[in-house]
Design goal:
Keywords: Membrane, Signal, Transmembrane, Transmembrane helix
Structural class: mainly alpha
Radius of gyration: 24 Å
Order of helices and strands: HHHHHHHHHHHHHHEEH
Shape: globular
Pfam families: DUF2427, Ytp1
Protein name: Integral membrane protein-like protein
Length: 464
């Protein structure tokens, strides 16, 4: 039986299992999202294994694939071996029962992506390059890279859906504010990750674009502001709640974004840095810190969220204007200054604080008697873990794209100067590596001869 047919059969079987076993819908009271049963051990195992595979193993394998490391395939096989049984455990548990929900439906799309990724990988392993298969192979190479890079984002969304479903949140009247919190919170975390990537390994790409980072930041801010301006209020209806504040926030975003785009170019057309993105973050934090809330606990959490966002914006302005003095880096070897880590981390923290401040979460924490101090410390802990993991993945990428350094003397090997994780005189190699989706072990020797950028590296498979 072909592999794709077998995989499709497994998905269909799992859907049948979900429909006919393990989920007694009679236990759910009409109008409720779930039963009152506790989460049993099988469901906890499902949660932990899925977080391990899609949250840690697959992103690590993705980075190893980008750098064409020979450990890419074994790591992805390990992740698949954990994810597939965990998927079935999610349908076989006997504890808390759930009504129809988005987590169950979205899981099939995530597993379909995994199946497509596996099929691409197996096909590329055959090294069929003659005739029509040569064109198919090019499509498979690009598809394998795109799907692999999308999976961490889709997995993040699915994990959020899982948490929402497990607690029965974001239904009926709570849906709108829930979407706002989780979308904006994830956006802050994503922005922090992008800042970290550009700071540590993305300077060559940025140089190639001929634009400053603030150009892209301001463009995104302007686009997001336009969306907020026309979606935060149902036009033609009465203004209620915080509609005015949300809409005016969207207005200032697109106004400031347009100004930032204009200021991102010098008179001669060269890239120029500016303060606009940092100021937008700062003023957004100020607005959110004064956002009226129904619960005292929610007020405190939103206040700390606003202060964290204000600190992120202020530190970003200081970084660009006073630490870097409009340059991309102040270090000769390209390593980031310690102050540069502050703005991205505060964006991670702000994202988690905002995602953790929905109405239903605040009610649950308040009823449990948990103070805002304890809750905020937990959310900051999550931010540190994601910040750590992101830096670990970027370190893994950087050390595996360095050329082999010859030994200088018996005292130890000479260190190769780096530009944000790369050799300073190999910007063109960095750009080329970033654009290649072909993976080491999926290429035949006669297809692509070993280039200086990979010579003596892939066989050693450096992993730190």
């Amino acid at each position: 039986m072909p592999f794709w047919a077998l995989s499709l059969g497994l998905v269909v079987f799992a859907k049948g299992t979900a429909a006919h076993g393990g989920h007694n819908m009679e236990k759910i009271v009409d109008g409720e999202a779930m039963s009152v049963d506790p989460i049993d051990s099988i469901l906890w195992i499902h949660i932990l294994l899925m977080m391990l595979s899609f949250g840690i193993i697959f992103p690590t394998g993705m980075v190893l694939g980008i750098v064409r490391n020979r450990w890419h395939v074994p790591v992805q096989i390990l992740g698949t071996a954990i994810a597939v049984p965990a998927y079935f455990l999610g349908h076989l548990h006997k504890g808390r029962a759930f009504a129809k929900n988005i987590h169950a439906g979205f899981s099939n799309w995530l597993m379909l992506m995994l199946i497509v990724q596996i099929v691409f990988g197996i096909y590329l392993k055959f090294h069929i390059t003659k005739g029509f298969h040569g064109k198919i192979r090019n499509v498979a190479v690009v598809g394998h890279g795109i799907v692999g890079k999308l999976m961490p984002v889709v997995a993040w969304v699915q994990m959020l859906f899982g948490g929402i479903t497990a607690l029965g949140y974001c239904r009926d009247d709570h849906l709108g504010q829930c979407l706002a919190h989780f979308i904006m919170g994830s956006a802050f975390i994503g922005y922090g990750i992008i800042l970290t990537i550009i700071m540590l390994v993305g300077q060559a790409w940025l140089k190639r674009t001929g634009r400053s980072q603030e150009f892209f930041d301001s463009l995104l801010i302007a686009a997001w502001g336009c969306v907020n301006t026309f979606t935060e209020h149902s036009w033609g209806s009465a203004w209620v709640g915080n509609d005015i504040q949300h809409t005016t926030m969207g207005v200032i975003w697109w106004c400031a974004g347009l100004a930032g785009v204009w200021l991102s170019r010098k008179r001669d057309g060269g890239p120029k840095r500016n303060f606009i993105p940092g100021f937008v973050i700062l003023i957004t934090g100020w607005a959110m810190s004064a956002h009226p809330q129904h619960l005292p606990l929610s007020t405190m959490v939103h206040t700390v969220f606003g202060y964290s966002l204000m600190a992120a914006g202020l530190s970003r302005i200081i970084e660009v204007s006073f630490v870097l003095r409009d340059a991309n880096s102040i270090s000769e070897d390209g390593d980031a200054n310690s102050f540069q880590y502050i703005p991205p981390f505060l964006l991670y923290a702000s994202g988690f604080l905002f995602m953790g401040a929905t109405e239903e979460q605040m009610q649950l924490i308040s009823d449990a008697g948990i103070t805002h101090v304890s809750y905020i410390l937990v959310l900051y802990s999550f931010a540190f873990l994601v910040f750590l993991f992101t830096n670990m993945l970027l370190h893994l990428y950087a050390v595996n794209t360095l050329p082999a350094a010859p030994a200088k003397d018996a005292a130890g090997p000479a260190r190769v100067p780096r530009m944000n994780g790369h050799s300073r005189n190999t910007d063109s190699r960095q750009i080329r590596d970033a654009e290649e989706f072909e993976l080491e072990g999926l290429m035949s020797d006669d297809e692509h001869p070993e280039s200086p950028s990979t010579l003596g590296k892939n066989n050693e498979a450096t992993v730190e």
